[in-house]
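quick q for whoever's on today - can somebody do inverse folding on this one?? i tried earlier but teh output was garbage lol. tokens:
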């Protein structure tokens, strides 16, 4: 029941963020043309990409909470990581376009309608602030983290635009608009690349950074009946749900019942290390390891 509530809340948060983002993108496009501000137009382009990626993120988040089936035997958890990848790639492409346009405007500054910029910046802080708060308070998956971080960056970006537009109101600084756009976009791009790296680690089945594979070996080898631990494989489905498989060598005299008891002990031991799902293969002492014969 708790998982179902969590799933509904995650999906609802992303849905609210999507609706707010679409509405504000339309306002930005109109406002950017009205004020002739490249900073606002670039953010409108950025938010248009966000709206598309948020739609994908919302759909994949809903999909990720379904149970496993014959096709996806581990369930759909990794689909929210796919959402994070898509969101990240859209942001990278959009950021490159914005940087190109901002550099052009730096060399040839144009006058902007500053009072309109101030009004849009205040509106941007409020609307993006609500969306960021909704997603940030419930972030669990990489998908939600990517969306939440970006919405938070949007709020920070609008605060910078507000400060810059106030400065332009009092001083003649037409180049500041392009400079603000450039700074905000580079900041966003750097942070998105970091999160893309994390999402790619999940897809490439890298071991989760917060779990040390040697800790797993150490926790198992200290159990009295275990003689050796090898072929330890560790990965994560979505950055939160971690999976481990391994072989343990045990005395050949152990009964089936003792194997079952040992499996429960191992599961309890590794649960404390953050491992949610284990697959253990027992090998009687003195017998060759099949995996070694297969070159694994």
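ok took a stab at it. sequence:
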């Amino acid at each position: 029941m708790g998982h179902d509530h969590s799933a509904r809340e995650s999906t609802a948060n992303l849905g609210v963020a999507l609706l707010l983002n679409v509405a504000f993108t339309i306002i930005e496009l109109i406002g950017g043309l009205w004020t002739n501000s490249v900073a606002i137009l670039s953010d409108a382009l950025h938010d248009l990409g966000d709206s598309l990626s948020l739609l994908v993120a919302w759909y994949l988040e809903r999909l990720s909470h379904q149970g496993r089936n014959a096709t996806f035997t581990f369930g759909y958890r990794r689909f929210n990581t796919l959402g994070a990848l898509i969101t990240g790639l859209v942001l990278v492409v959009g950021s490159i376009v914005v940087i190109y346009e901002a550099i052009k405007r730096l060399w040839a500054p144009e006058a902007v309608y500053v009072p309109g910029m101030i009004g849009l910046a205040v509106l941007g802080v409020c609307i993006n602030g609500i969306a960021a708060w909704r997603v940030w308070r419930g972030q669990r998956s990489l998908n939600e983290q990517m969306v939440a971080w970006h919405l938070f960056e949007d709020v920070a970006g609008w605060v910078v635009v507000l400060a810059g537009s106030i400065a332009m109101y009092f001083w003649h600084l037409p180049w500041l608009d392009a400079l603000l756009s450039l700074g905000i976009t580079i900041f966003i791009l750097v942070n998105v690349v970091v999160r893309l790296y994390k999402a790619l680690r999940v897809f490439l089945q890298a071991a989760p950074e917060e779990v040390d594979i040697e800790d797993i070996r150490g926790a198992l080898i200290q159990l009295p009946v275990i003689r050796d631990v090898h072929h330890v494989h560790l990965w994560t489905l979505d950055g939160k749900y971690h999976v481990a498989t391994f072989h343990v060598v045990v005395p050949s005299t152990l009964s089936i019942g003792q194997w079952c008891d040992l499996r429960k002990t191992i599961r309890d031991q590794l649960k404390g290390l953050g491992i949610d799902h284990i697959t253990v293969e027992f090998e009687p002492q003195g017998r060759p390891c099949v995996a070694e014969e297969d070159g694994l």
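fwiw Confidence is low (pLDDT under 50) at residues 1-5. also The first strand starts at residue 228 and ends at 236. so keep that in mind when u check it
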